[in-house]
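Structure (tokenized):
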């Protein structure tokens, strides 16, 4: 007895949906940029928009992790519309924000 491909049942796979394309990585990169600005202001401690260093470290780490997740889920390379460039930017901005928060934390430990 021979089984044809047309006779096999087709099962759909239900999974978790992650924002596809460029939307998720772009949002992550914009959040990373905002956290870098807040981290810089926290490091400089010159205005009322300065935040706690631990907040900057946490937000920077979360941005970097989100960028890595989007990079792992991307199907193509840069320029394919899968958000590889935005994901890479989110990772780098998250790392920079984490470093700025760490420097601000060390600076506040030294001063007090």
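Design, position by position:
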């Amino acid at each position: 007895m021979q089984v044809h491909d047309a006779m096999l049942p087709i099962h759909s796979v239900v999974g978790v949906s992650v924002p596809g394309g460029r939307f998720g990585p772009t949002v992550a990169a914009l959040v990373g940029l905002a956290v870098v600005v807040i981290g810089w202001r926290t490091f400089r401690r010159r205005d009322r928009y300065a935040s706690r260093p631990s907040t900057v470290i946490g937000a920077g780490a979360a941005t970097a992790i989100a960028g890595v997740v989007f990079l792992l889920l991307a199907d193509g390379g840069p320029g394919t519309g899968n958000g590889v460039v935005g994901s890479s930017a989110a990772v780098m901005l998250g790392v920079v924000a984490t470093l700025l928060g760490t420097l601000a934390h060390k600076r506040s430990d030294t001063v007090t």
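Reviewer-requested clarification: The chain has a mean pLDDT of 78. The longest helix spans residues 84-111.
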